[in-house]
Amino acid sequence: MTTLGTTGPAVSRIGLGLMGMSDLYGPADEKESIATIHAAAEAGVTLLDTGDFYGMGHNELLLREALRTIDRDRVVISVKFGGLRDPDGGWHGQDNRPAAVKNFVAYSLRRLGTDHIDVYRPARLDPAVPIEDTMGALAELVEAGHIRHIGLSEMGASTLRRASAVHPVVDLQIEYSLLSRGIEAEILPAARELGMGITAYGVLSRGLLSGHWTPERSLPAGDFRGFSPRFQGPNLSQNLALVEALREVAEARGVTVAQVAIAWVASRGADIVPLVGARTRERLAESLGALELELSTADLAAIEKAVPSGAASGARYAEPLMAHLDSEH
Question: Where is the NADP-dependent oxidoreductase domain (predicted)?
Fold first, then answer.
């Protein structure tokens, strides 16, 4: 176990991200998704991450169903809010106005079937709303008991400092993996300075670092990786070459590529909690095996040689999406 930042709740060393069970990675089996959440809870995973816009509410309803047989007090529910969608699944920006914050949380509480959310966070910065205004609304929700803690997502160092001046922030959720190390320059030091933990998503770079990806793999309709630069043309070939180099390190330790990639993220500090996006019990079991892997100094050096910082080919999002990330500015 560890804690989210200096003021947050105690959570497991690995969390389960639920997004892919409802959205963006093609069809998922609902029964298997619920069984995977149950298996995670039985294995001691306490941090469950969702978003109100994942499947336009479906993900929260899925979690509600899973929680029917899980002790609510044993899990920490993290919810992102503010992403605007349409009936066709399109995206229309972020709404972090104070009135919208309170509206979103009311609907999430009802869908989840709970009287509080443990960590509540805007999914992105809303450029039209000062972060201080959003934080003020969130602080009121904490005072009222509707949420227990405030988190942030994909925000830059200066925004983290402005937000923390209003109310303590327990963690920053942001992409961090062997292929996405941009936070190491400014964002991670700022988070540590401010007492924030990191919940790292994309630790397998959306499957690239799973060790199961092949150049011939086709993506189902609606899978957003089809628009990701890292999965296209020469970029994909170069990134998979890095994975093969990492596979040599994994095989030398008798573990899988995914386990090495997850263990590497966890090794960066007790204040960093990897979120794994397993959609099946099989993938979950593989991911949890990373907890048993202690990387030696020699292992870390071999990993660094196989996948040096900055070696990824292609940006982590398509350019229009990158432009809207405060963390990239």
Answer: 13-306
pTM: 0.96
To the query of whether residue 107 is one of the catalytic residues in this protein, the response is no
Burial of 150 (0-12, 13-18, 19+ CB in 10 A): buried
Domain 2-207+265-293, CATH? 3.20.20.100
Place of tokens 């009135």: 99
Asked if 248 contacts 22 with a C-beta cutoff of 8 angstroms, the reply is: no
CB atoms within 10 A of CB 123: 20
What is the pLDDT tens value at each position of the chain, 329 positions in all? 999 999 999 999 999 999 999 988 888 999 999 999 999 999 999 999 999 999 999 999 999 999 999 999 999 999 999 999 999 888 899 999 999 999 999 999 999 999 999 999 999 999 999 999 999 999 999 999 999 999 999 999 999 999 999 999 999 999 999 999 999 999 999 999 999 999 999 999 999 999 998 877 777 777 878 778 898 889 999 999 999 999 999 999 999 999 999 999 999 999 999 999 999 999 999 999 999 999 999 999 999 999 999 999 998 887 777 887 999 98
Alpha carbon distances (Å) from 49 to 54, 119, 164, 311: 11, 9, 22, 29
